[in-house]
Each structure stands twice: as C-alpha cells, then as structure tokens.
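seq as requested:
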Amino acid sequence: MRGHFVLMKQSTFRMLITVALIAIAACKGTGGKATGYKTEAVARGVVTMTVTATGTISAVTTVQVGSQVSGVIARLYVDFNSRVKKGQLLAELDPTPFQQTVEQRRADLTKAQVDAANFQVTLNRQRRLVAAGLTSQADLDAAKTSYDGAAAQVQQANAAMKQAQTNLQYTKIASPIDGIVADRQYDVGQTVAASFSAPTLFTIAQDLTKMQVQADVDQSDIGRVQVGQIARFTVDAYPEEEFRGKIKEIRLNATVTQNVVSYPVMVDVPNPDERLRPKMTANVTIDVAQVRAVLRIPNAALRFRPDTASPATSTAAARTPAGGPLAAAIPTGGGGGGRRGGGGGGFGGAAAGMPRPAAQKKAQTVYVLGADSSLKPVQVKTGITDGHYTQILSGELKEGDKVVIGMQTSKVESAPPPGGGRRGF
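struct tokens:
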C-alpha cells in the first residue's frame, strides 16, 4: 500500500513538471511576436523645412590694432574688457630711440641748409664775374650744379626728419574706434617687432549689442538659403534659450574641409543685454520653407513596408489584383523613398530639411488600416518635411485615416530561474 502511494506521488510530480515546461515553452513561443499594427491618424498641421549648420558668434565690426614701429612696450593704459573711445591712448612704446633719431635728422637738415646757402653764395659770385667778363661760362655752370645738388640734399634731409617724427608719433598707439578691448597680446616690457608685418597688440570689438553668426552651410543646402530668412540658434552657455536673427549675407568664399564644401552665411543677431559673447559656438537652424494647415503624415508611414507573411497582409494581397498598387508598392531596388529616411520624398528622415532632390514629387505608397484590420495601399505625392512629418500634396488620404507606422509586438515574459520549478513544486 505504501509503495503504491509512492508511485502515485512520483507520477503526479512528473505530470506537474511536464505541465510547467509546456507553459514555459508556450510563453517563450508567443513572447515578442507581432500582434498588430501601430497607426496614427492623418491630421492637419504645420510643416517647416529647416537647414542646420554650426557657426561662430562674433562682433559685427572687429578691429585689430597693431604697431607700425618696433620697440619695447613702456606703458599699457587699457586691459581686457576695457571700454575705449576713438583716439584714446591704448599703449606707448619706449620713445627714447625715436627721439634720438629725430634729433639726428634735424641736425642733418641744418647741415644741408648751410651747405645749400654756401653754394648759393658761390653761384651768385660766379654770375657777377661772368657778367664782368672775368670768368668763363663753365665756372658758372659748375657753381649752379653744386647749388642744385645742395638744394636737393635739403629736401632729402627734411623728408628724413618728417619720417623720424612720424615714427615717434607711432610709439603712441590709439584706438581707431569706440568699442571694448576683446584681446590683448603683449605686456609691459615685451619687444614688438614690426619688421615684416604689423603685430597685433589689441583686438577691439566695436559694438557688442549687435553681433553676427557665421554659419557654415553645406553645399547641398545652400540653394534653399536666402537673404532675409529667419535663423534660430542655441549656444552651450544658455542651452534652454533660443536666439533669433536674420540672414544678412551669403558669401561666395567657400571652404573645403575633408572634401566637404560649405559656404559662410552671415546672420545678424541683436544682443542688447550682451549675453552673447565673441567666439561662442552656435547651433543654427534656418527655416527655409513652411506650410500651414496642410495634411501631413509621420515619416514612419513612408518607411513602413508590410510583412508578406503576416495574415493581414495575405488578406490584403488576396483582395488586390496581381500587379496592382500593393505589388507596385513593394520596392525592388531601393526605389521606395521611405526607406531612405521617410520624409519629403524619402530623404528627410535622415536629416531635417533634406528631401530627395530627384524624386521629391514621385508617388509613394502608404498603408491605411481598414475596419477589418486589413491593409489598403494608398498612393500619395509628398511635399516638404521637417524630419518628423511630411506634407501630403495629393492622393486618396483623408483627414482621420489611420496610416500604419509600424508593427506592435507583445511583451517578452522572462523565463523562471533554473531549478525554480522544482523548489516551487
């Protein structure tokens, strides 16, 4: 009797383990399997095409103040962030060697003037002697030549003295504009060498209440950018705030960096509180096109392609004639624009504001979920995209239609830990 009870207990235990294993396998078999379609209703709204770029903030007018002569900096009258006026003294070089040069040139001028006066006396004497017939014409010509040479020496000495005086004035460096000292390169005691080019001592920003952003726009987007368009940008110093400006100029001096061609676009930005500072990095967004109150669909709807093995798709295929819209909608060589990004003809999903140039107006296929959960392919023509939604230009879509944007999947249930079933039983 006791042995029969043990056999019954073992049989029951094995049956319970078998049932548990079957349940676990069933859970694993159904976990993560597609159970339906995710949809979104077609609605009206705003679609704004944008072009993005990175730029640098600078003052509208920035002047680099240099030195015309070489020398040792004797005094500095301004420092970083100093506000200066036009003509204000900024720095001064040691004037001693330049003063000595002026004195030397003045002495040379005096000597040249004395020599010229002596030759003039000789010339006048020769003229009287020639008139009296006491000397020859050759002596008169020689005296005149000597006087002309002395007069030229006077002019040369006078020019050298003026040059020395000008160099002496260059030792005092003044501000050419009203503004703020943004940079200072030298300290007192340093030697300024101006042999080949004028070294920059100060950088002065004229007016920090009016700034500009130089945004480098890629050549593929520059055709959409126009003067007068609104540009929005953010800076790392104020990540939660968006600044606005207007495009002032599109320059032609393109730059090539690693085979990427970009054009500088200048954006005027008001800065009344002077929070924006020179050399800040700006993340610029330019609104190049905008449409309002238009039918729009998610870009995911342009990317979606049904699984031919699913029951709903099989039903839709059975209801669609061979070679009909559903067959034509399935891309065979990457021609479906939605697969490349899903916006504005298929390119906008990869980067905002970049529709596919060659096939923007070509018809594309989206799928509408019917009342009986079957898919209906619909041909549409798309317009601009903002990277999330795409404008519908024409087609059979109506406001409120549910377009399929993806597949719904059930949650995957985790399997019990090893050996957990035996302890539970």
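DSSP finds seven helices and 20 strands in the chain.
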